[in-house]
Amino acid sequence: MSDACLIAEVAVAAPLKKTLSYLVPPELAVAARIGVRLRVPLGRRRAVGFLLELSRGSGEGLKAIAEVLDDEPLFPPALIPLFRRAAGYYLHPLGQVIATALPAGLSGRGSAPPILRETLYAPTEDESEPPGRRQRQILDCIRQAKEVSLTELRSRFDAPHAPLKRLLELGLISARQQERLRDPFLSWPLQPETPPEPAPAQLRVLEQLRPLLEQGGFRSALLHGVTGSGKTEVYLRAIETVLERGRQALVLVPEIALTPQLVGRFRNRFTGRAKISVLHSGLSDGERYDAWRNVARGEADIVIGARSAIFAPMPEPGLIIVDEEHETSYKQSEGFRYNARDLALLRGQQQGVPVLLGSATPALPSYRRALDGEALLLHLPGRAAGQPLPEVELIDMTATPFRTLLSDPLAGALEANLQRGEQSLVLLNRRGFAPYLLCADCGQDFRCPNCEISLTYHRGRLLLRCHYCDYQLPPPESCPRCGGSQLDPEGAGTERLELELKERFPEARLARMDRDTTTARGAHRRFMERMLAGEIDILVGTQMIAKGHDFPGVTLVGVVNADATLNFPDFRAGERTFALLSQVAGRAGRGTLPGRVLIQTYAPEHYALQHAASHDYAGFYRQELALRRELGYPPYGFLANLVLSGNDPQRVERAARELAGRLLPLPPGAELLGPVPCLLAKLRGKARMQILLKAAQRPALRRALDRFEQLSRPVPNGVALAVDVDPVDMF
DNA sequence: AGCACGCCGACT
DNA sequence: GTCGGCGTGCTC
Ligand SMILES: [Zn+2]
Ligand SMILES: [Zn+2]
C-alpha cells in the first residue's frame, strides 16, 4: 500500500449518493485546500465539486482534479459535519447541499464585482425656492440631508429624474459621482444610541440566559414574548456577552423582516465596536460573494441573514439566534428542503454553541421541546413599555348578508378612527382584485393551463394571473364559451378591498401594501416612512403588514377574513391562523392606548380564534398540542412527503403506485398514506402525486426513509422525485 | 442528473 | 433488416 499520492474526497454538485475520490496532481497540491471548489472529470463530463477531506494513498484507478476554482476556502472544515448531517437528514445529495448552502452565483470564477458609480446631490448656496411642488419636495429632502444619493432619492420619490434635472439647471443643487456603497443596508443613517435600561422582565430573562452564554456549549432556549415585548433588546445584550468572549454571533431573521431598519438597530448598538455583515438576497452575486468571504475570514463579528445564512462560515460562533422561529420561510421549499431553524439547533449541537429561538407564537415542535425540558423556556410577559394588550373582538359574519366585505362594526370602527385622525390596518390575506372571474351567463371560469387553478383577476394591471406560475393573460372582452359579455369578479382580494374602502371613506388616505405594490426597490421603506409621517390613514394589505413591519401609530386593526387561513386543508391551519392573528393584533396600540382589533369570521367559535382573541397563548398551545397528539401530527408525529412529478400524468400516477408498493411493508411504527394527487395536482405544467410517510417516533420515520433510500431507482425516467422531510406545507 | 449500454416493437 | 423506445447501471 503506497502513500505516494495526495487524495481528495470530493462532493460533486450532482445527485450522487456518495462522495468521490480524486487524485490531487502535484502542481495543485498547494491550492487544493479543504473548502475550495474544484472542477473534476465525471464520466465524460466535467462537474464542479467541493473538497471535503485530504488523505494519502496509492491513487490507483482515480482520476485527477482538473482545476482548483478558489484561492481561499469558501467554508471552514467545521461546517462539513453539518453539511453531511443535513444531507443525510433531508435525503439530499451532499454536493447539492453544499451548492445550496454557498452564496448563489458561484458557478463562474470568483471575480470581484464591478465597481458601481453613483450620483450624489447636494444643495448649493442658492436658497431660493423652485416652482414645482415635486421639485420643492425633492429639494427639501436634499437640503435636509446635506447630501443624498440617487438610489436614496429613487427610494423616496417616484421618477425623480426630471425634477432633479430641473433643479440642476436652476443651480439649486449640485451633483457629483462617487463609488457606490456596496451594500444598501449600510446606507441607512446611523444613530449611535445609549442602550436603554433593560426592563425587569428582560433582566430576568438575561439572567437565565447568562450561564448558556458564558459557559458556551450547546444549549437551546425558547424566548416567548409578544410583539413589542423587547425580544430584540434581549438579543442585543446576549450578543454583547458573546462578543466579549471573542466569539461571533449569527442572527437569522425571516427574509421579510431583513430590512435596513432591523439591521440599523444592530448597527446603532454596536457601531465602532463590532463588525456586522448582512447576507441578503438584495446583494449582487459579487457582493454576496465578498460578504461571504469576509465572514469566512473572521472579519465579521455579527452576521445577520435570512434562511441560507445558517451556513454562514464564521470561524468561531458563540451564539445562534433564530428570530420569529415559527416562520415557515425558514423552510426551503425546493431542492434541498432544509429548515434553517432546525439546522440552527443541529449546528449548535455540532459546534457546541447555544441557540436562542425567539417568537411571539412559537412553532409547536419548539414549544414541545421547551415543555419537555430540552430547551429553556423564557417568557417576556406583556409589552415592554407596559402597554396594555389590544382588545380583540370577533365579528360573527354569519349574521351579515352574504358577500359583505366590511361588517358594520368594522366599518364603524374605521370611521371612528378616521374621525380621531388615528391610523388603521386592514388585513386581507389575498392579493389581486378577485380570486375568480366568472361569466354571468354560463358560469365559465378562467384557469391556468399549467396549474389548473383559478386565475386571479388583477384590476390594476388588467390581467388574469396565476399565483403559482408566471402565466398571465389580459381578461377577454367576452366569455370564450358562450360569448356572454358580462364577466364578474367573484370573491375579494386586497385591490377590491381598497376600492371598497375608497368608496366608503372617500376622504381617507388609503394605501395598499402587498407583493404587487412592493416589488420596487425601497418600496417597503417608502410605505414605512409614509405611515410614520402620518400620510396614510388606512393601510390595506396581505400578511405582509402583519409581519416584519412595525407601524407604531396604529390603533385599529381589522382582519377581513380570518377563515381564509383557517380553512386551509392542512393540519397547521389552526396554528397559522393563531400566529397570524396574534401578530397582526400586536400591531395595534400606541403609547398607552391599547388599540383595538376586529376579526371578521364565519367560525367565531373556533378555538384558534377564541384563544387569539383572549391572548391566551398557553390555552391555545394546550389545546393544539392535545389535538396533534390525538391525530399523530407534529410534534407528536413525524412526517416526510415524497412528491413525484412529471409531464405525463399517467406515468407519474403509475410511478407513485409502484413506489408505494415497493416501500411496503414499512418498518414497524411507520405508516404510508397515499399515493394521492397533490393539492396542486398540476403545477407549472407537471402532474404531481404524493406519498406521505408518518411515524409516531422520529427513529421509525428514519427507518422508513432508510428503506426508501435503499431502493435502487425509486422512480423511472421522466418522473422526478422530491423528498420533503418535516414538510411545512403539503402542496 | 446525465450518459452509456442493451434489449424488444414497428417502420423505411 | 435497423431506429428508437426506455429499463438499468455508473459516475472516483
Ligand atoms: Zn359564458
Ligand atoms: Zn400556473
From TrEMBL:
Known SMART domains for this protein? DEXDc, HELICc
How are cofactors bound according to the entry's free-text note? Binds 2 zinc ions per subunit.
- A single GO molecular function, which one? DNA binding
> What reaction(s) does this enzyme catalyze?
ATP + H2O = ADP + phosphate + H(+); Couples ATP hydrolysis with the unwinding of duplex DNA by translocating in the 3'-5' direction
Q: Where does Zn(2+) 2 bind?
A: C448, C451, C466, C469
Gene3D superfamilies xrefs: P-loop containing nucleotide triphosphate hydrolases, PriA, 3(prime) DNA-binding domain
Binding of Zn(2+) 1, residues: C439, C442, C479, C482
Spell out the Pfam families in the cross-references: DEAD, Helicase_C, PriA_3primeBD, PriA_C, Zn_ribbon_PriA
Query: Could you say which cofactors this protein requires?
Result: Zn(2+)
Q: Which NCBIfam families does the entry link to?
A: priA (TIGR00595)
UniProt-recorded name of the protein: Replication restart protein PriA
- Say which species the protein is native to: Geothermobacter hydrogeniphilus
